[in-house]
Amino acid sequence: MGKSSNDAALQHLNSAQRLFWERADRGSGTIAGSVRQGK
Q: What domain of life is recorded for the organism (predicted)?
């Protein structure tokens, strides 16, 4: 039970993070691009 709810929270965090990086790419491509390549 706790694990499945944790997974859901992780998935929500991942999608939110993805949105953040997509916006950061548009805002300041250099910083976001370098951080993304490091991942």
A: Bacteria
Locate the DSSP E strands across 1-39: none
* CA separation for the pair 13, 33 (Å, rounded): 20
Residue 1 gets which letter from DSSP? -
Decide: 36 and 25 in contact? Cβ < 8 Å. Answer: yes
One-letter amino acid for residue 37 of the chain: Q
Q: What are the pLDDT digits (tens) for 19-39?
A: 887 777 666 656 655 666 555
What single letter denotes the amino acid at residue 33?
Answer: G
